[in-house]
């Protein structure tokens, strides 16, 4: 049985992907599940995070979002039985690559796959879906009637975020990074309240959001990165498409929540004072937050997938 691994050079500059012959999986015991893989998503490998967590090794398994059929369960498994259809995310320290015929995984990293969701949809959306649910439910407490700004709404993360926000009864504003993205977002049903085209660098995100909300500002911001410095000090592409951190603070309403994916966000004292006056909060969306607690992950995954068993999952690959 072969599996796909990546090998990083000693200089960390070159990555090679190799297929390796794997030994047969050990006997399934305790809380572990043997899973026949039906679909696996390919997501970016965060080599920087692996280095920070001291998890570097010569060969690292590829593919962590998997969907498949349970073949066998250990004696302490309580959530699954053979022939169950499941989906989940393999932990960072998993020895098994998702791109393989079968994997061995702890039951807390899996949930039941809704019947209406295909193998490909389950594996392809579980990661971004979990990120969005974490951002909107746990980090910003989205509720009906709230206004939400979703940056880069045509991305995989943005598309799911828009659908979940609409599902909760929120008013959605989004940005588009190209004409094609703008046309895509304008076809959403229910419609997005305003699509801001930032592709030409002329649109003012803060002004547009304040205008749309009658000067009150938005309740929740889910960014796709922000500029920390002036345009002259940032790469040309980043300075054109991403808003400055001051714009985000300006458009945020009283008591608002800013959920950021910018891991190196720097807030100066005047920025913090402005957020203090608004009673606003900043939360960081960590892509690997579910690895911090596998029990919490199971709760996140099951809640998200229950909501996926219907209209929320209806977006195109």
TrEMBL record:
Entry-linked SUPFAM superfamilies: GroES-like (SSF50129), NAD(P)-binding Rossmann-fold domains (SSF51735)
Molecular function, one GO term: oxidoreductase activity
Domain annotation Enoyl reductase (ER): ranges: 10-301
Lineage top rank: taxon: Eukaryota
Pfam families found in the cross-reference section: ADH_N (PF08240)
Protein name: Quinone oxidoreductase-like protein 1 isoform X2
Organism of derivation: Bison bison bison (North American plains bison)
Lineage: Eukaryota, Metazoa, Chordata, Craniata, Vertebrata
């Amino acid at each position: 049985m072969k599996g796909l691994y990546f090998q990083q050079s000693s200089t960390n500059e070159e990555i090679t992907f190799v297929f390796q012959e794997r030994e047969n999986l050990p006997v399934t015991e305790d809380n572990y599940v043997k899973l026949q893989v039906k679909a696996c998503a390919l997501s970016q490998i965060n080599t920087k995070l692996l280095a920070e967590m001291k998890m570097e090794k010569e060969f690292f398994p590829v593919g962590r979002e998997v969907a498949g059929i349970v073949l066998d369960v250990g004696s302490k498994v309580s959530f699954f039985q053979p022939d169950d259809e499941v989906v989940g995310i393999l932990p960072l320290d998993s020895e098994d690559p998702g791109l393989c015929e079968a994997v061995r995984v702890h039951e807390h990293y899996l949930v039941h796959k809704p019947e209406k969701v295909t193998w490909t949809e389950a594996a392809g959306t579980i990661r971004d879906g979990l990120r969005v649910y974490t951002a909107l439910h746990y980090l910003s407490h989205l509720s009906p009637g709230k206004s939400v700004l979703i940056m880069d709404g045509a991305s995989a993360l943005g598309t799911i975020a828009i659908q979940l926000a609409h599902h909760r009864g929120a008013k959605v504003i989004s940005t588009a990074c190209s004409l094609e993205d703008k046309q895509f977002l304008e076809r959403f049903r229910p419609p997005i309240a305003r699509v801001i085209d930032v592709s030409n660098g002329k649109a003012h995100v803060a002004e547009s959001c304040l205008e749309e909300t009658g000067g009150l500002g938005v309740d929740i911001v889910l960014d796709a990165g922000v500029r920390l410095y002036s345009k002259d000090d940032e790469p040309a592409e980043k300075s054109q498409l991403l808003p400055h951190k001051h714009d985000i603070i300006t458009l945020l309403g009283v008591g608002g929540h800013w959920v950021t994916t910018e891991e190196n966000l720097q807030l100066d004292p005047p920025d913090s004072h402005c957020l203090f006056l608004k009673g606003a909060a900043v939360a960081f969306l960590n892509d690997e937050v579910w690895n911090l607690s596998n029990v919490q992950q199971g709760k996140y995954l099951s809640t998200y997938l229950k909501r996926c068993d219907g209209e929320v999952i209806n977006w195109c690959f």
